Amino acid sequence: MAQDSHSAVNAHGWRALVKRLRRANRERLNRWLTRFMGTARPVRAPLAADTRRVLVVRLNKRLGNILFLTPMLRTLAASLPTASIDVLIRDPRQKPLLESLPGIGRVWVQPRGLGALIGLIRRLRRERYDLAIDPTGNSSSNRTAVALSGARQRMGFASNSQWLRLTHAAGRANSRHQAEQAVALLTDSVDELDFKTFDTLAVFPDNRAQTAARAHWVEALGPGPTRGPVIGFFTRATGRKALPAAWWRDWCEQMHHLAPAATLLEIRPPGAEPTADTASVAVAELDVLAALLSRLSVFTAADSGPMHLAAAAGVPVVGLFRATRPEAYAPLGQGCTSVAGETFTGAEAARAAARVLAAEQASGVA
């Protein structure tokens, strides 16, 4: 058994080493290409007067990263009201979240298989996009898709590894929130356009999603109006961001003490067992989950997709940060706050949720 464990550790170490070597080699290649044909410095210029078709590329499956697009997409829609804005993403489950945003035309999903991928590239080129945007500074997939789109204007972040030739480029400020960086890309690279900017995440579930969410709500909490506020929580997160089950049980105990009139509702992934002895619900469809989250008074979660989805749905969120920086990944929404550090307790997080709940009740929102 000890030998097997040792072998597993060695295998993990080799995989990590290979991954680092690949990343280093790719970075060296990017830097070399940038010297000859890329965009190492910012380029600020007006958009072409006839910019009517825009493609935003974000080929990443993480829910939070897709939601970080929403302030930028809303800024584009409000500032270019005659333009049609399409988006290219990787996960079809996220498609309804973007389709309901104002000004969004078509949400393309990257298919599997070489033949289907070639077909998508051909369809994108037939759209004759006036502008293609890579809203990140570190995705080779995004850059490749922007290049293959055939758009006559290209926007992205300048760097010494930006091998794509850009017509509009901004310097990347890593100190900013990830969502704010995407908005800053627009304002810092485009001249002669007064952008109407947005600084919070947003989703707008349709009537179908609202109806489905209502059914889940009744299943979890029973028919009729709930007595007192409903405080939601999500106990899962990836890697070092996750908090142990015992921590969450302590948090629940503290919440019952601080907000005795409130009902606790655990949001759990489909197929996962509840963490605590409270009401719970599992929802697979992301737009339905957004609609259900919008019914909560407060939501508490570690840095995760559901944390950002709740903020986008308009819920005051208490984000818990042990392994990531709230400066870059905090929940962006009205009434949202963060608890950060390596050793904060369930009681501290519960007090933060109680303060947010009290503020909401005092404002008459809850």
From TrEMBL:
GO molecular function: ADP-heptose-lipopolysaccharide heptosyltransferase activity
InterPro entries: Glyco_trans_9, LPS_LOS_Heptosyltrfase
GO CC, alphabetical: cytosol
Record keywords, A-Z: Glycosyltransferase, Transferase
Domain of life: Bacteria
Protein name, per record: Glycosyl transferase family 9
Keyword Glycosyltransferase: yes
First and last residue of the signal peptide: none
Gene Ontology terms: biological process: lipopolysaccharide core region biosynthetic process
Coiled-coil ranges from the UniProt annotation: none
